[in-house]
Amino acid sequence: PFLMRDTPIRHANPMAIDHQAAIHHCNDYTHRTANSVHDDDLQFVTTTGRSSAAFSGVLRSPSSSSNPHTNALRFLGTSKRRRMSRGRPSSLSMSDEKEHHGDNEDQTATFGSTYHAPVMWKECIAGLQGCDRYQLRVNKDDKTENNPPHEPVVFVDGTLGGGGHSSAILQSLQPGDVLIGCDVDSDALKTASDRLANHLGSNHESLPLFVPVRSNFCELASVLPKLKHPITDQPILPDGLVDGILMDLGVSSYQIDTPERGFAFMKDGPLDMRMMNDRGLTAANLCNELDEKELERIMKTYGDEPRARAIAKSIFQRRPLHTTQDLVAAVADVTPEFAKQRRFGRTASLARVFQSFRIVVNEEDKVLDQALSEMCPNLLRPGGRLVVLSYHSMEDRATKRIMRDGTLKPTKQTYEKDLYGNLIGPPRPFRALGKARKATVEEVEVNPRARSAKLRIAERLKS
User: Fold this and answer.
1) Mutual orientation of helices 94-111 and 164-172 as an angle, nearest 10°?
2) Who contacts 289 (Cβ-Cβ below 8 Å, separation ≥6)?
3) pLDDT digits (tens, 9 = 90+) for 20-35
4) Which of 255, 288, 287 is nearest to 269 (CA)?
5) CA 318 to CA 323: how far, in whole Å?
6) What does pTM read for this prediction?
7) Taking the CA atoms of the chain, what radius of gyration do you get in angstroms?
8) How far is Cα 347 from Cα 340, in angstroms, rounded to an integer?
9) Whole-angstrom distance, CA of residue 98 vs CA of residue 92
């Protein structure tokens, strides 16, 4: 296939034209003007992959450059750039595009830190603000005696990390409101507490209060009702309920980038992977003590690793393993560095293997199940919001089921209703608000670790 250069396209739309339409115009014009075209006006283009027109340039006639009907058609030279441009104005200049991205970059920089960059923070805050108490404050016409808008709003950040989401939440709250930040990682608690020091109580009359708590989020239903206000020494939760819970289930950038934690295969460090780095088994314990079949099961179940059997055998033969590079070498022995399909390459296998051992070391599947089925329904007040960010299919599947069906077990509920529109069957604790949302292309460009994130939001129903 070929395209004509330096030839006019008559009556073309002055706006951007997709490449299929442009090829149609070019072919049509070629047939109509074949006898008057010189060799120098033809440019042959080699096409590869899915891109049918790997051409970047201007189609115009030298003799009619001032013709108002002459159009400049620009094609993106690679399929990657074409995909990245979807949803973005095609006629942006460099300065316009910088302005188009500027807000997103500034917003990420505002709440991001060297510890971690919060993912989809605007969507998360909007989800929390949809709770009944917050909306009563916003809609002053809806004041009622039973739900006075002046009662403090209490949110929980169940995965505090570096405090990025917490910093954004605190900016949306008023004096008297409370944000409880929880994490099992002592480094995360210290980092976030230093960052949010102004909200720890010294300015409680002019700023919302931040209360750090070291706890696993699955245990918050029993821990938080005992929590006392640092100034008044009164219970923070008189009725034991909160208005919103945020859970970001990903590993923080700090944990990945710190070799001593053992989460990353790119850097050499001890084969640890514990969130609470002072208790529990390490990934090295699992690799050196479990039998070959159990290692295979772990990688199949929690990583969907296609070479689980071969990798388990390689780990068994290379024992003992002490560092992350020992595990990398065991995987490299049976995995090609590159493959036709990206899924079968070494990097993808390493990511799945490390993810599998991290989940088992920290019992993330059991913790998440307990948090979704017990902690969240017991701690959220009716009208409260549950906001969950997940990063792989196991987490998202559990979140979807609890929000939609009220159970973690697969079910085929038909959701039949009676004459009054009430659902027939066991009561559900939540009502899912829309489908899963993903990070925008612009955010992924700024924060690549947001590319696999899925956000789900649900409302706590009355029992």
Assistant:
1) 90
2) none
3) 554 454 455 444 444 4
4) 255
5) 12
6) 0.72
7) 28
8) 13
9) 9
